[in-house]
Specification:
It is a single chain. This protein has 128 residues and is mainly alpha-helical. Helix content is 52%, strand content 6%. Helix 2 (44-61) packs parallel to helix 4 and helix 3 (67-84) runs antiparallel to helix 4. The longest helix is centred in the last third of the chain and has 19 residues, at 94-112.
Length: 128
């Protein structure tokens, strides 16, 4: 029941340098669509979407938890996601970096209970 956007979906094969030529033109058929292989792939959309989902959930209970608990939840459930794939995020375009920055800004606002209209730069420095 998974629906894939064939224009955005790619797969990657990890192999030795000797086998790269054998795997570079592979295709996988999923339903009626063919998915092409790629030398590099990113799934930043899923990372951001899952982070915003957790931000929303923590935000719903933020009035019932103290600041330290909120910080721990943000660290465990949100910040750990981009950190896990940090090596894959090396040298990504500025537009994708900005998406991650917006997630980080939301995290900082949630932890410090800063309003949306207030400047976030000083809060980010405070949190280091």
């Amino acid at each position: 029941m998974l629906k894939l956007n064939k224009d955005k979906t790619k797969f990657i094969v990890f192999s030795s340098k000797q086998h790269v030529k054998k795997t570079e033109n592979l295709r996988i058929k999923v339903g009626s669509s063919y998915i092409n292989s790629s030398m590099s792939v990113r799934n930043l959309g899923l990372i951001c979407k899952s982070c915003y989902y957790q931000i929303r959930n923590i935000g719903l209970i933020s009035n019932y938890i103290n600041d330290e608990t909120c910080k721990t939840l943000v660290q465990a459930l949100i910040i750990s996601r981009p950190d896990y794939g940090n090596a894959l995020l090396y040298n990504i375009p500025l537009s994708l970096t900005n998406r991650l920055q917006r997630v980080q800004n939301c995290d900082a606002r949630l932890v410090t209970r800063t309003r949306k209209r207030e400047h976030i730069t000083s809060v980010l420095f405070q949190l280091h």
